[in-house]
Amino acid sequence: MPTIKDVARRAGVSIKTVSRVVNKDPAVRDSTREHVERVVAELGYTPDPAARSMRSNRTGVLGLVTDMVTTTPYSVDIISGVQDACAEAGMMMLIVNTRGDRAHTEHAIRTLVERKVEGIVYATMYLRALDELPAMGDLPMVLVNCFMADGSVPSIVPDDYAGSYAATSHVIELGHRDIALLSVNPVIIAGERRGRGFRRALLDHGLTCTPDRVRAGQVFENGREVFVAAEATLRFLDAAQRPTAIVCGTDAIAMRAYNAVRERGLRIPDDISIVGYDNFVMIAEALDPPLTSVALPYYDMGRTAVSWLRRLGHGDGLAEPTLLMPCPLIRRASCRPL
């Protein structure tokens, strides 16, 4: 097996120069780098990762700690984004799923620090604020789909306010003026932000949000999620004047609204338009007609987290400690113009 000395001898340069090229030192001249890289390829030289780690204090490994992201289809794209970005950077990812257990989370983070990962992505299934995190010294961390209330740790979260604003504006621009909201549980952060986006869009377009046009499509009872969207939709439909469009807090809520609309013998979008949120394709694309929905940018959030960690690891700063990632509207066939 060729060694670094063999490469240096064949290339006619010092061992130090070969090491600088292999470790992608930007100060190496382009002509020298290209020459050494050709020799490396000709000899089939592969650097010893353990030796490189000892010399550079870099292991080429990032840690990903999650609560339940690995076990839910809704946010698993965060993992795909982190993994793809790591692969493109020639790095590996170690992942720990803690099921939201505080002690397990603290142990996982301490263990990853001891294993000398270069940084940690901490991701949650639901958008939420964190109270505290284990001490990590100088090791960089980026939060995904969560944040510290004091902004002390860089975080990347979906812009749910703007996403809901865009969904509501979409049906308004189609000519709808009587629009209802089936909200996700408003006590969670995403629900509150999506509700504000809905109301602001109505206000900015000169429309009024009346209490009878806002109902919960999902609530928490005894610590678990309970969907009440079908019943709430029926109340909208049975009113003396039914709305012409319903904005739903999630695609799962929208799916139940579809069932209620059909129960009353009505058609989507002929009789009523519906917009979802999440762009959970297993629902949105399977519904008939396919559901217009706001996409959560989980994949891009994961990729961006890796980019941020690498910048922090090289001592570079970040323009903003918190990034609100845009949530694009995916137009399908569940809305029609009036």
Automatic annotation (TrEMBL):
Organism placement in taxonomy: Bacteria, Pseudomonadati, Pseudomonadota, Gammaproteobacteria, Candidatus Competibacteraceae
Location of the HTH lacI-type domain: 2-56
GO MF annotation terms: DNA-binding transcription factor activity; transcription cis-regulatory region binding
Keyword hit for Transcription: yes
Protein name from the UniProt record: LacI family transcriptional regulator
Listed CDD domains: HTH_LacI, PBP1_sucrose_transcription_regulator
Keyword Metal-binding: no
Keywords: DNA-binding, Repressor, Transcription, Transcription regulation
Pfam annotation, one family: Peripla_BP_3
